[in-house]
Design a protein that fits this description.
By secondary structure, the chain is mainly alpha-helical. The chain has one domain. The chain has helices at about 1-20, 25-35, 40-65, 75-85, 90-105, 105-135, 145-155, 160-180, 185-210, 220-245, 250-255, 260-290. Helix 3 (about 40-65) packs across helix 12 and helix 9 (about 185-210) crosses helix 10 (about 220-245). The longest helix has about 30 residues, at about 260-290. It starts with a helix and ends in an 11-residue tail after the last helix.
């Protein structure tokens, strides 16, 4: 029995060595191994924590900002549909609070924006640490104030692009209703909205993987990882929304906090995709570029 196990183990090692000679398999293996070595799951949990703290202040701030218009039932429905399509689990919480937010829009708007800026800055700080860890960078030469300035810049730059990518379909849906487009054009409009949303999220990943690593980066090594992350993000978002709407019985387990749990899980998956894409980018660049990456040098 012992000899059989030993022979099986040796055979598996030979098969592994043979498969790893295939460049694509080697790249996938190195990405998975790097994600484990660099604590990708724990890093994603840290990003999800700060993202969760900032996402509701952002939504509440937007609701307060447009509170004068949200008295319209149609616009409230459009907002809730947008949130439901892009941020699973957040719709129920907004439904419970939207009337109070509109009534107190002045105070809520200012407070929400302050909390959002703090939480989003911390979130991008966590993303920065995770992506640099994926690139095997453990030291930083930038000062505290430069790092914080960069994080705030990403909040208003990359953050706005991300929101636009999520809102592209909702914006086009509103315009479609206003313009009264014929049925024949609806398919083209829907495909166009999905394409615009995908291209915007691709730009977000490109900027993350280009600007955040504290080392020299090259566009030709970044775009495959950004493309992979964008595709995974769109697939995950579509499947997650479908699961929530059609298959899940999550309320049987979590009861009244089910919406919060769903939202946390979705944010965690999204954060993990960001980090996995960074791992893939690093491994792909390392196979193509002979210079040792992760040196910690400034860009």
């Amino acid at each position: 029995m012992f000899n059989q196990v030993k022979r099986l183990k040796a055979r598996l090692q030979r098969e592994k060595g043979r498969l790893l000679k295939i460049p694509a398999v080697q790249l996938i293996y190195n990405t998975a191994e790097g994600a484990g070595d660099h604590d990708a799951t724990q890093r994603a949990a840290g990003v999800a924590y700060y993202a969760f703290l900032s996402i509701f202040p952002l939504l509440l701030g937007l609701i307060a900002l447009f509170g004068f218009f949200l008295s319209s039932i149609n616009l409230q429905d459009e907002l809730l549909n947008y949130v439901g399509d892009n941020i699973p689990g957040a719709t129920d919480i907004l439904k419970q609070n939207i009337a109070s937010i509109i009534e107190l829009r002045g105070t809520m708007g200012v407070l929400s924006i302050v909390i959002f800026i703090w939480g989003a800055s911390a979130m991008f700080g966590a993303i920065s640490l995770a992506i640099n860890r994926a690139w095997d960078i453990h030291r930083y030469r930038r000062s505290f104030f430069i790092r914080k300035g960069s994080e705030l810049g990403m909040v208003f730059g990359i953050g706005i692009l991300f929101l636009l990518s999520l809102g592209a379909s909702a914006i086009i849906s509103i315009l479609r209703g206003v313009l009264n487009l014929p049925v024949a054009n609806l398919l083209i409009v829907n495909m166009g909205s999905r394409l615009v949303a995908f291209l915007l999220i691709l730009v977000v990943f490109l900027l993350l993987y280009k600007l955040i690593p504290n080392t020299r980066t090259y566009w030709r090594y970044i775009w495959p990882g950004a493309l992979l992350a964008a595709i995974l993000f769109e697939i995950a978002r579509t499947l997650f929304v479908f699961y929530i709407e059609n298959l899940a019985n999550y309320q049987l387990i979590y009861g009244s906090i089910a919406s919060i749990i769903i939202l946390l899980v979705w944010i965690y998956y999204s954060a993990f995709i960001v980090i996995l894409g960074a791992e893939f980018t690093f491994q792909y660049g390392r196979t193509r570029h002979p210079v040792t990456m992760g040196s910690g040098a400034d860009k």
